[in-house]
Amino acid sequence: MQLSEQEIVRREKLTKLREMGINPYPAALYPVDATSKSIKNDFEEGKKVVISGRLMSRRIQGKASFAELQDSEGRIQVYFNRDEICPGDDKDLYNEVYKKLLDIGDIIGVEGELFTTQVGEKTVMVKNFTLLSKSLRPLPLPKVDAEGKVYDEFNDAELRYRQRYVDLIVNPHVKDTFIKRTKITSSIREFYNQKGYLEVETPILQPIPGGAAARPFLTHHNALNIPLYLRIANELYLKRLIVGGFDGVYEFAKDFRNEGMDRTHNPEFTVMELYVAYKDYNWMMDTTEKLLEKVAIDATGSTKVTVGEHEIEFKAPYPRVPILEAIKIHTGYDVADMEEDQLREVAQKLGIEVNETMGVGKLIDEIFGEKCEHHYIQPTFIIDYPKEMSPLTKEHRENPRLTERFELMVNGKELANAYSELNDPIDQRERFEDQLKLSEKGDDEAMFIDQDFLRALEYGMPPTSGIGIGIDRLVMLMTNNSSIQEVLFFPQMRPEKKKVELSEEEKIIMDLLKPVGQMPLGELKDKSGLSGKKWDKSTKNLAKLGIFEVSKTDDGLFAIAK
Known about the structure:
It holds the Pfam family tRNA_anti-codon. This protein is α+β, with helices and mostly antiparallel strands.
């Protein structure tokens, strides 16, 4: 492992601490009885406290020093005085340990008394301190100059997401997003629990990936010697529970879809699904409005939430617009009675990329997504989807070509999807078989046939309404974040590129080759000035690293930088 100069120095300090008999990673409980926030809120001059936190700054002035400790609730100033900490002749705890062997980023415990400085700062006078964890890597802390300008902020998105632990330390405001996320999920739970609905858990590993149209992740169970899928939705299991006699069940589920990644999609995401017996999609729209109004107030203190350039009003009621009417409004095409070929032609005229695997449902979905969705900034229910788009949805009671389904659009994106659930087992089987035909045409997102779910329906499922709400997108809205990665502690990332360490001879070769991209092999060898043995060893290793290759041409052998 290649260590930086600072990392080497910190490891040397670690050794010195151990030589002094100080365990830099003690196991014993540390009796914390206060936090930075509680000290400030309930400040009492002279009060004894025991706190702990990360050393984030310090100003050493001889035998005295002011420093800042950061804990889970903020920062507090602490004052180190050599004679307070070391009242006897032995001053090593201050002179050696504090001044020389501690570093910014170390976690320490402090016993002390509260006092107020001359400039009015609430501070802890340190009577004793204990090293609780030695930090071996320097924190990427921002620097502020005399004019107040901030430099070297830890704001590179890839580094922040990959090293979220560092992000949370040096950018404390990031915690606010995740605190708010917990408030949002707690608010939803409170709303449903008050109605008597039961929070449940259903399988993540499933023999059939049902409940949505999406490409699944496939794995293998060795003991059973069967393929299993990470769930793409929990819908079909929750409906089994409605068959079993529960009137209302909900689940905060981790779902997985083996599809693209962008600012609003992560392959692992959280969805809340709710199913309530003896209800329909009209009731679900009314209930969803009330839920989101409550969530907005609990999370932000208001029904109005700022999202980018928009102020979004979550106060009920929300407009209800049929999807075919929305397409007509925003494209000028009335697609209500069109067949597959006509829809494909319309999509092409609108500049939408289509292919032969797309059926009626997929084509309408593409047209709406490309040409209509972004217009709906304020919460809007898009309702009454064509049957081909909704294989798990009850047929519309007034139009047999449609279904009783809605999607809730907010800020130009889908936030929720809900149905009057299909409970006719014969109709459901036919819909699944239609999906199977799409799969045979090459649609790798078409649904599988879940025979056990069909068997459950044959025992009888009461009229039911269900909804799925994307929790990650809801948190994005409530925290004014445009990227899903900002609301996930650990978003999926590409593999981290390993830093390639080259020998001096390899550096000579690449320094000559990189600026020109390629060079006759003999010329490169002459310019490098390396002996035959060093040349052979270096070029072989560079080729193994994948950054150097030799190409044979009519003009001879050429070295190429990759």
